Amino acid sequence: MYQQMIFLNLPVNDLDASKKFFTGLGYSINEQFSDENAASVVISDTIVAMLLKKSFYSTFTKKEIADATKTSQVLIALSAETREKVDELVDKALALGGSPTGETQDQGFMYGRAFDDLDGHTWEVIWMDPAAVAG
After folding, report:
1. Which fold has domain 1-61?
2. pLDDT beyond 70 at 135
3. Backbone angles phi, psi at 114, to 5 degrees
4. Rounded CA separation 111/41 (Å)
5. Rounded Cα–Cα distance for residues 117 and 114 (Å)
6. Can you tell me the distance from the alpha carbon of 23 to that of 51, in angstroms, rounded to the nearest whole number?
7. Is 3.30.70.420 the CATH classification of the domain at 68-135?
8. CA–CA gap between residue 11 and residue 68 (Å, rounded)
9. Which among 75, 129, 119, 71 is positioned nearest to 98, based on CA atoms?
């Protein structure tokens, strides 16, 4: 069965620093689709974050590139297997230079926290109780 993929294209200021940040979170770089202008960060079998130097990113759009530290255009949300995995990933991100953003959301059946990466892109990490999802 075909599994649709998602590729997040994110402009970054410092490609090497961003690569260190995301590999520090436990993700890998697919060197086949990486070069001096871009890094392909494998988040899962179906999710890839393409980190693009701003000069390279600008070749894909005629629009002004937003400064994610000042404006918000998208919130990236990732699921986590457990509440503890939410904390583990967000705490790692903060230790690697990410910034906390928003409040911890704890509704019992759903738990989430968020961080901004080095360029200000917001990543939400959420866990939902499988029993609640099943209805």
Report:
1. 2,3-Dihydroxybiphenyl 1,2-Dioxygenase; domain 1 (3.10.180)
2. no
3. -140, 155
4. 25
5. 10
6. 12
7. no
8. 9
9. 119
- How far are the Cα atoms of 69, 72, 78 from residue 66, in angstroms, in the given order? 9, 8, 22
Per the CB < 8 A criterion, the answer to whether 10 and 52 are in contact is: yes
CA pair distance 64, 47, nearest whole angstrom? 25
pTM of the model: 0.90
Cα–Cα distance for residue pair 21/18, rounded to 1 Å: 5
What does the alpha-carbon distance between residue 135 and residue 130 come to, in Å, rounded to a whole number? 9
Q: What's 64's DSSP letter?
A: P
Two tokens at 21? 């940040």
pLDDT for position 131: 86
Average pLDDT value for residue range 81-94 = 97
The b-or-e profile of 15-31 (16+ CB within 10 A means b, else e) is beebbebbeebebeeee
Contact 50, 66 (CB under 8 A): no
